[in-house]
């Protein structure tokens, strides 16, 4: 279920932060094992205590979409179930976190919580829409994109969603905020139109699907990190 973060959230039954407690019941024939987990945070759905994991303990192959998890690891997970059984693999929507929580991580998860709440409240509005990612084609070898170099940026909220229309070479030709940052919004829109291309499926006729949604995050923790983005598709 790897897609955009917004799509994964909207499609998931359970979203939260889990910690792996133990792994057991290695089944070499089915190449699965189990992991007991505890939830540190729950953003959507109901907590569970056991995961099925594709692979073998200590012998999983990511090329086969198998995954190794070990006790004390922590993950942000966005999962669907089958008959109330949750199964994860390398291809699942889950992001590994630090073993020990940090202040930066707590801030990042608070931003995610606000974005998830907005998506949940407005999920009917997004039902027929498709989220995507963008790429700054003018960034080149620069460590930060032009978006991350905006001066005097003081957002009223830490995320924004833009509705964009693209041309036949995937550049943004129209952009309008569904919800903006509340600071430098026109500057952001101008940079997006000038610099960005949108990751879009290769339709035979791109006019069949020319409108997308882009979810952007304000990563305050990256302001003094030379190689990390302050305004980005990504929440870290």
TrEMBL record:
It comes from the Bacteria. Gene3D superfamilies: 2.40.50.120. This is Uncharacterized protein. SUPFAM superfamilies: TIMP-like. It comes from Chryseobacterium pennae.
């Amino acid at each position: 279920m790897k897609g955009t973060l917004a799509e994964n959230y909207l499609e998931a039954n359970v979203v939260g932060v889990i910690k792996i407690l133990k792994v057991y019941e290695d089944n070499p024939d089915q190449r699965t094992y189990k992991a007991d987990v505890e939830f540190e945070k729950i953003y959507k759905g109901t907590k569970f205590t056991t995961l099925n994991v594709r692979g073998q303990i200590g012998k999983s192959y990511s090329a086969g979409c198998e995954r190794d998890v070990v006790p004390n690891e922590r993950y942000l997970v966005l999962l669907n179930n089958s008959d109330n059984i949750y199964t994860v693999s390398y291809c699942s929507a889950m992001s590994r976190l630090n073993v020990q929580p940090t202040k930066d991580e707590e801030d990042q998860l608070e931003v995610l919580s606000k974005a998830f709440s907005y998506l949940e409240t407005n999920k009917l509005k997004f039902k027929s829409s498709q989220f995507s990612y963008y790429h700054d084609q003018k960034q080149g070898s620069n460590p930060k994109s032009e978006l991350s170099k905006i001066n005097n940026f003081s957002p009223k909220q830490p995320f924004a969603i833009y509705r964009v229309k693209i041309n036949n070479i995937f550049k943004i030709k129209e952009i309008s905020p569904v919800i903006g940052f509340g600071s430098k919004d026109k500057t952001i829109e101008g940079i997006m139109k000038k610099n960005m291309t949108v990751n879009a499926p290769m339709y035979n006729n791109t006019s069949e699907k020319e409108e997308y949604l882009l979810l952007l995050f304000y990563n305050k923790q990256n302001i003094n990190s030379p190689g990390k983005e302050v305004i980005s598709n990504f929440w870290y």
